[in-house]
Amino acid sequence: MSTAVPIYQVDSFTDHPFGGNPAGVCFLDEPAEAAWMQSVAAEMNLAETAFLSPQADGYDLRWFTPLVEVEMCGHATLASAHVLWETGRLSRVAEARFHTLSGLLTASLRDGLIEMDFPATPSQPAEPPAGLLEALRTEATYVGRTRFDVLLELASEETVRALAPDFGALRTVQARGVIVTARATTAPYDIVSRFFAPPVGIDEDPVTGSAHAALCPYWARKLGKDRLTAYQASARGGILHLRLAGERVKIAGQAVMVLAGDLVV
Known about the structure:
Blueprint: E1 4-12, E2 21-27, H1 34-44, E3 48-55, E4 58-64, E5 69-70, H2 74-86, E6 96-100, E7 103-110, E8 113-119, E9 124-125, H3 132-136, E10 142-145, E11 150-153, H4 157-162, H5 167-170, E12 178-183, E13 191-197, E14 202-205, H6 212-223, E15 227-232, E16 238-245, E17 248-253, E18 255-264
Parallel strand pairs: 2-3, 4-6, 11-12, 13-15
Antiparallel strand pairs: 1-2, 1-18, 3-4, 4-5, 6-7, 7-8, 8-17, 9-10, 10-11, 12-13, 13-14, 15-16, 16-17
């Protein structure tokens, strides 16, 4: 006998369908085996699929790429909160609370945006991993390491947009992913970025909320401002509104539900 499991697909950090970063959102009555969730994520074949199961004061939330479980994901958290409010599982005036491998994450509706509260993951200056600059086919003005990723500042927005990495070579880099960024010259944005993560099955992520937990403290210090508007310059593109709040980063954006159905298992 089959069981129907509610599942959704949401485009995050965009105000229109087929933009931003698509995420799967799967609702479970109780926690599932990791191997099963990994199989579902591989079936969905999106950058991340989120799995939620209820707790007394919110939801347990886990994220899987098609290849691995990850410790932090912004766009699938945004998608999860959006589905909670859109389907009436949570009142629109209530805060969404998620228990994750990165601690308690929350989301609220503010001024037409979904604003998430994430831990900042600042970078520390570091030597570039062997072969990284060759794989990116570029030079960097800054190289740092965050809790998860390598962060590189490049010379210009044009340099970031024009990158054409060797993804095969990037798979050998010992990090979850590689953030490349520059100060924006295109209004109304303060910064631009791209994110590459071949080691976890994502050559280029369209819009990466968790990367901005590192980008926000980096650029806030460099530009002398604690509020930033960011654009991730992937083919789909996405807009993020950032605010540095001590050791936390507020990451806000919009989302659009594009699919709703049941996973029959």
